[in-house]
Structure formats: C-alpha cells, structure tokens
Automatic annotation (TrEMBL):
This is DNA-3-methyladenine glycosylase. It catalyses: Hydrolysis of alkylated DNA, releasing 3-methyladenine, 3-methylguanine, 7-methylguanine and 7-methyladenine. Its EC number is 3.2.2.21. InterPro entries: Formyl_transferase-like_C_sf, MPG, MPG_sf. It comes from Zophobas morio.
Length: 217
C-alpha cells in the first residue's frame, strides 16, 4: 500500500454522482485540537443532486443561509443538524446545490478515541462495525459538528481532509441502491439508486440484498 496522498481541488472537481462513487475507498481524516488524528475508510455514500432531486436540501434551487455550503466550490464541507441533536456531513460537488453525504466509515486510526466520543451518548461498549455505520454515528465518532467543520474547504483545511492510499474499489464491488430515509413525497426520487456502498464491507449502515444479488447476475 502506498503512502496516503491528500486529495486536491482537482480530485474533487466532479459531478455529484461521480463523486459519490469516487469517494468509496478514500480516507476521511480528522485532526483534533489536541493533535490526535482520527481516520476511517469511506464505505458508503449518497448523492443529492439538487435541482429536480426532490430529496435534496436544495430542491428546485432553494438557497438559504443553512445550505450555503452546497453552493460553494466542490470540496466544501456541509454539516447540518438532524432531529435537533445529530449531525450529518456532506461534501459539495461541481453542480450548484449538489453534494455527497458520507454514510459510513471503516474505522482505521484513533479507534479508542472514536469509541469515547460515541459512548458519551451511548452507554456500554461498541463493536468496530457499529462505530461509524451511519451518517450521524460517523459524525459523533469523528467529532464532526456544525460549529467546528461547516464550510471548511477540505482540500485546504488542517482539521478535516481526504486521502487516497491506493486501495481502489472496483466497479464489481459497488452496490447501487435507493437512499435511506427518503419520504415517499419525493416520488420517484425516493427509489432512485443514488446510494453506493462497498459490498464486502461489514461497516455499511444498511444492506440491500436484492441489489447485491444483482451484482452477481
């Protein structure tokens, strides 16, 4: 395995769906104020296309102070709160209003510290496979919050960035499925296959057996 290379603006200058697939296998790195480094491999993503995508925060060109990062250059962090208490982390892509949600990581470095961050709200021990297997779990484990990380340019930030260590995810390993938790009011967008995950990973948040079976047929 080669030495990790930090991803640049050129690497992330991608359309949303293409970026969601490209990010699989890449490393998310978080450097804390203490100097501790947390690292995990991205194994699940979702793309939100903006525009006509009714499941997007920016559907029909909606622009607010809250979703502003999705209109900033590709590689901008968009962190928002859900259910009034949890955070989700997205990365803007080239299309105005579009971004990729990171749904799950394989923890690689700083695992014990990640567990401490998670168990602040969850009593008891956690398996590694349960540590970052969901967008809000990922944010808790990596200490990603709106006040610390929103609007960061992750190609230049010294506290949050992406790396490539050469571990490629090939097309036959990638499952395409519908996104999680999309309201039926989104119509056809609730079923559009815009979620992507590594079929062999035990760290994925939710599996789609039908879509997995389609990989082998």
């Amino acid at each position: 395995m080669k030495s990790p290379r930090r991803l640049s603006k050129a690497d992330l200058n991608l359309p949303c769906k293409e970026m969601a697939i490209f990010l699989l296998g890449k490393l998310l790195v978080r450097k804390l104020e203490s100097g501790s480094v947390l690292k995990g491999r991205i194994v699940e993503t979702e793309s939100y296309l903006g525009g006509e995508d009714k499941a997007s925060n920016t559907y029909n060109g909606r622009q607010t102070a809250a979703n502003e990062p999705l209109y900033l250059p590709a590689g901008t962090a968009f962190v928002y709160m859900t259910y009034g208490m949890y955070f989700c982390f997205n990365i803007s892509s080239t299309e105005p209003g579009a971004g990729v949600l990171l749904r799950a990581l394989e923890p690689l470095q700083g695992v014990e510290l990640m567990k401490k961050f998670r168990t602040k709200k969850n009593k008891g021990s956690l398996k590694d496979t349960d540590l970052c297997n969901g967008p809000s779990k990922l944010c808790m484990a990596m200490n990603i919050s709106k006040d610390k990380c929103n609007k960061l340019d992750i190609t230049e930030s010294e506290s949050l960035w992406l790396e490539d260590d050469g571990e490629a995810v090939e097309k036959p390993q990638i499952v395409s499925s519908s996104r999680i938790g999309i309201n039926s009011s989104a119509g056809e967008w609730a079923k559009t296959p815009l979620r992507f995950y590594v079929v062999s990973s035990p760290h994925v948040s939710k599996r789609d057996k039908k879509a997995e079976d389609a990989l082998t047929t």
